[in-house]
Amino acid sequence: MASLKEMRNRISSVKATQKITKAMQMVAAAKLRRSQDAAEAARPYARRLASVIANLATGVSGDGAPALLAGTGRDDRHLVVVAAADRGLAGGFTSSIVRAARAHIDGLIAQGKDVKIVCVGKKVTAQLKRPYGDKVVDNFDLSSYRQLTLSVAQPIADVVTKLYEAGETDVVTLFYSRFKSVVQQVPTALQLIPAVVEGGEPASGPAAVYEYEPSEEAILETLLPRNLTVQILSALLDNMAGFYASQMTAMDNATRNAGDMIKRYTLEYNRSRQAQITKELIEIISGAEAV
Amino acid sequence: MAKLHFSLVAPERELFSADVDQVDAPGAEGDFGVLPNHAPFMTTLREGRVTVRDGSTVKLFDIQGGFADVGPDGFTILAEHAVEVAS
After folding, report:
1. Do B72 and A204 lie within an 8 Å CB cutoff?
2. Considering only residues 213 to 232 of chain A, which have any Cβ-Cβ distance to chain B shorter than 8 Å?
C-alpha cells in the first residue's frame, strides 16, 4: 500500500499530464482547421490539372505518349513513397499508413519484384528503416516547413522523376492518408507513374477540336511532371489535416483517461486517509481507556 | 452580351473565378487575348501579367509560368505562382 504522500504525488503528476494533453488537443484542433482549409483550397488546382491531362491524354495515347504517362511497359521494379507524419502523439496515424504500405511492399517482395522505398516524414523513416533498411533509398523530413507549398513537394517529385528517368523503377506508388473526415482518415495507395488517367469523360465531348501552342505532346510533357508534384502536394496536405485530426482525437482520449485516473486515485487516497484517521482515533481511545 | 467564365487557379488556392468580358494572358509563344466564345485553345504560359476586364473594372495578376485552357465552358489558367497586383 502506497503511503499518502506517494499517492498525493501521483495525483498531481497525472494532473500535470492532463493539462499537457488538454493543451495539445486544443492546439491540434486549431491547426486542424487551418490545414483543412489549406487542403480544401488546393483541391481546385489538382482537379483542373487532372481533368486537363485526362483530356490531353486521350489525344496522345499511343506511341508518342510521354514516358511518365505510358510507363516503361514493365512492372519489375517498384518504388514506394510512404508519406506520413514527422511527429508522434497522434494515435495510430503513422502506423496505419505504414501498415498499409508494408502489406503492399511484402506482397511485391513475395512476387519477386525489386522494391525501393522513399520515406517522407521522420516517423515513417524510423518505422521502415528497421525492416527494410537496405531498400530505403531516400528520406525526407518536413518538420522544418511551417507551410506546405509546391516547393516542399518539389524535391520529393524530383527524386521520384530522377529514379524513374534513370531506369531504376517502373512503377511508382504513393502511400498517404486520405482525409475523409475528422474521425476518418483512410490509408490510400495512389499510383503516380505511370500516371493513371481517370476515366472522366472530356468535359465537352470529343468534338471539341483544340488548338495547341506549342504542340500537344510538348504541353503534356510539361504538365505531367507538374501533375506529379501537385499530386504529392495534395497528399501531403491531406496528411497534414489527417495528422492533426488524429492527434486531436488521441489527445482527447488521453485527457479523458487522465481524468478517470485522477478520480480513481483521489477515491483511493481519501479512503486510506480516513482509514488512517480511524486507526489513530482507536489508538487514542484505547490508550485513554487503559489509563 | 455573352460573358467569358474565367478562373485563375494557383496550387494553394483559387484566386479568381467569375464571368468577365475579356482576358489577356502571356502565352509561351506570344501574348493573346480571349473573348467570349473563343475557339478551344491550349497553351503554356510564360512569366507575365494577366489582365482581366469586366465592364470598366480591370484586374491585374502577375503569374509565373503555368498553363491556359480555353474551352467551351470557359477559360482556366493554372498558374504556378500568381499574385494580384493593384491596378
Report:
1. yes
2. 213-214, 216, 218-219, 222-223, 226, 230
